[in-house]
Amino acid sequence: MKTPRSFDHVDTWVFDLDNTLYPHHVNLWQQVDARIGEFVSSWLKVSPEEARRIQKDYYLRYGTTMRGMMTEHGVRADDYLAYVHKIDHSPLEPNPAMGAAIARLPGRKLILTNGSTDHVDAVLGRLGIGEHFEGVFDIIAADLEPKPAPQTYQKFLTLHDVDPTRATMFEDLARNLVVPHQLGMTTVLVVPDGSQEVVREDWELEGRDAAYVDHVTDDLTGFLQKLATG
């Protein structure tokens, strides 16, 4: 049996954005997912079905479809990001309870995402929790190298002067917790609550029992509330 790391020593709280700070069943990412498919189909001049296959293949192999499209087809990141993040954020609802819980956590709060700062701003604005975060490390700050690349985490830690042994990482993809755990971070996997259908690949929902996952929650707000009062 593994012994999960605690939060007693934590002074930096690091959050992924999509499907982490809002529930999976909002399916906001499904809109982005559809836009990615449209972009791939248009750029490569292939059918939607073939574009879908390529999209998911690159996502799995490169960490993001964008990275695959840049590497194999010379796509410009600015063009890609501007297109795929042009979505309707209205399904997101304000979450003052989460904001209050985040505010009560001792120390700094940061966001580490494979998305863009424009997307982060839009999401946090809808959730009403942006004021609680000190900084955002996005795909541009990562020099377009997405999680789970080890160098991306190192750049993040260096830029924001984070001691990983005193930090926690919240993520919805277990594979993105491998490196943080190796670096000494306490890791938390955020999973669907099972109340509604979610649109995810099978591999995206794996890893709950992995040795590098210290804690699992299907209710991030409740989880943070317990941490803040514990």
Describe it for me?
The chain has helices spanning 28-44, 48-62, 65-73, 77-84, 96-104, 117-127, 150-159, 178-183, 220-229, and strands at residues 12-15, 108-112, 135-137, 167-171, 186-190, 215-217. The chain is an alpha/beta fold and 230 residues long. It has a six-stranded parallel sheet with strand order 3-2-1-4-5-6, with no helix packed on it. The longest helix is centred in the N-terminal third of the chain and has 17 residues, at 28-44. It starts with 11 loop residues before the first strand and ends with a helix. The model has no long low-confidence stretch (mean pLDDT 92).
Sheet with most strands: strand arrangement: 3-2-1-4-5-6
Global outline:
globular
Indicate the proportion of strand residues.
5-15%
How far apart, in Å, are the first and last alpha carbons?
24 Å
- Number of distinct helices: 9
Helix content: 40-55%
- Structural class, from secondary structure content? alpha/beta
Mean of pLDDT: 92
> How is the main sheet built?
6 strands, parallel
- The total of beta strands comes to 6
Q: Pick out the low-confidence regions.
A: none
String of helices and strands = EHHHHHEHEHEHEEH
Radius of gyration: 17 Å
